[in-house]
Design brief:
The complex is a heterodimer of chains A (224) and B (581). Chain A has eight helices and six strands. By secondary structure, chain A is α/β, with parallel strands linked by helices. With 581 residues, chain B is an alpha+beta fold. In chain B, the strands form six sheets. Chain B has a seven-stranded mixed beta sheet, with helices on one face. In chain B, strands 1, 2, 3, 4, 5 and 6 form a six-stranded mixed beta sheet that branches. The chains are: A alpha/beta (224), B alpha+beta (581).
Amino acid sequence: MADFIKNPVVDLPDPDPAPHFSEEELVFTANEKAEIARRIAQYPTSDGAVMWTLWLAQDKFGFLPPEVLRLVAQELERPYAQVYGVATFYTQYYKEKKGTHVLDVCTCFSCQFCGGYDILDYLERKLGIKRGQTTPCERFTLQEVECLGACGSAPMLQVSNGPYAHNLTPEKIDVLLATLENGEPLPFVSLTLPQDEDQMQGNRRSDAEAVEAYQVPPVAKLTS
Amino acid sequence: MPHVIIDGHIYEFEGKPGLLQFCLDHGIELPHFCYHPSMSVPANCRQCLVDVGAPVRDRASGEIQTHEDGNPVIRYFPKLQTSCSHVIADGQVVHTARTSKKVARAQQDTLEFLLINHPLDCPICDQAGHCPLQIQAYKYGPEGSRFEFQKVHKPKKVKLGPRVVLDAERCINCTRCTRFTDEISKSHQLTIIERSVKNYPITPPGVTFDEPYSMNVIDLCPVGALTSADFRFQARIWELASAPSIAPANAKGSNCYLWTRDNLVLRITPRHNPNVNEYWLPDEDRLVYHRFNANRPLGPQVRGAGGTLCEATWDDAFRAAADVLAKAGERTVFIASAFATVEDNWLLLQLAQSLGAEIAGYIEHIEPGHGDGWLRTDDRTPNSEGCRRLGLMPVDAVVLRARLAAGAIGALYVLEDDPIAAGLCSVEDLGDVPVVLHYYNTTNETLHAAQVVLPAAMVAETIGTFVNEDGHAQRVVPAKAIRDTNRTLMMQMGLSRADRHGTPFDRWHNEAHYVNCKPSWELLPEVARRLGVDLQHGGPRRIMRKISEKLPAFEGATYEVMGLQGVLLPERVAEEAPENA
């Protein structure tokens, strides 16, 4: 965002990009079609299923180039333009190819105060890329994002629209990257609240795979 | 009857009117951008905010609570309401910016937000001068901007399609254009992309905005974000004069304005007529204006001894035409025109009748598959229904060619059409048969075979009546002056600043833009007079009155009744015998 304030230029999307997927690849399986039909039936019109089907397509194809959006529109019998508008509205839908793991580092207000840019800077040096870029091995994409709603455990990051990593330090990042490189799944971590620690063993969620205790947030070193 | 109090004035209403439309209908101005009467109400520009309150009812008794002075207790909505989406209920009290400082401040702040990233393009913007954002910022907006950082730059001069250019920076995201493509034309070719300050309307990748109604979004756009590829940077709006007219590219007779500058038609925009085209105009109707300006004749011509067309005076040309008719007499065949007005065709009927000659009919211009059941029709002429109501039928090409071959035709008198280009007959078919031709453009192929050619005024230059395919009789008024007429003296002509204050000696004035032609309702009586036939009529207004009295198919179609919105004629009886009234 900081770059956009200094240089507020919105680019025109490529009006006619070369397709990434062939005709044979661009199909939903019978199972997927059945699931989409089930989702459509949940809503009065098929508009309601647009976002869910986009998730499905993103899981299947990795990202959402125009030909995939066309496929989604065709499946839902919705205008392609509408599906395209929805896909571009949400940054969580990837319009271009990303790495296997997308690291969304929060640099919004709270995280910035608690060292969000320190974490981003550390990741940039460690991965050898700048924010917004993907490593040559196509394993990691590093992104700077706005508030993810976890200010209590700042600084934090999110991995591929999925699990959060809380209370980040350089050491924790080393462990996190090693885990991701080994292909191990990240647990869903529930963050305890100080006032809960006596009563519920600090965990309000029964479905949490892991628990992390609240800590007093650090203070940012970088002032950029 | 239920009532609503707006700014202290009581208005009665029926049904469930929307507040914004109700105010607009009653002459109360409310600023707005995204609202359009024929589309859904998204309430996303937030410009039409008003303060609305309703009388408080006692919960137990249902009675309206009153103050001690007898006035009802009014409880205001906790927040300002968007009047476009607010449905009026009985007894409600509404305050607009005129009576509420809160509303005035809210509207001013909304405009300040809208203007944060709006570029200061006004000096070069096509919309300047008739721009709702400009007008409303002036009337309701803040005096200056408090935002001193760089504005967001979005793509400029993006060609969305062959006819529409996008300037994304200027967009205020009212979504009128996307709603038009979603709800009205249903082409679904536009969408708003991205979010927050980055969003703007565009086509998705691989799609071109080429639907046949695409140019309507230019009129809908309340700012200069969508402009016409054709008219872009051609003229400032205050230099143009407009005239209410009828679009001539098809038989729907969509109402339009012709915009002229220095006597050239520069653009055509829709004119609201709820019975014909509502607010819309297809692109084909807008792009015909080149015909009015380019390839126009220099004056009347007569084929000389050498076999070439030579320039002649009007008098000589009329005399030559009369000679042709006098020689052929009853063996003359007249061809009416679906491009010409009802009045012109009726005069042609009179002339034919006085000679005892026959009218073969009008030339049909049908393009099968072109129509879409909405504003485009298979018929590419504006007045074929008018011809049929005069008792004229389409010319049978086979019969005509057979009669030409048999030598049964002494002369051909063609009103405002092109029989050779239309495939009715060829130059060889015509042989030595002399042709008198009323024509519009020098591209007319029948010119090669014609003996006498008389330049006729086009729809943009004449006064008359067209009947659309549904039987709506509608008037056209001149937008362009022709040679020897004066824009100011032609009482019905729209005037621009330049027309009022300019002179023929101004640097921008071009005499060549005044075409040396005459309307057919002037040409036909002149030819008739030289044949000893009196066709003096006192102007098209009187002709139409006479037609409406004589022909049941035109009952009630006088200029006074037609006005600017036209009139629906009585149902035409199908087996009506051709009558030469």
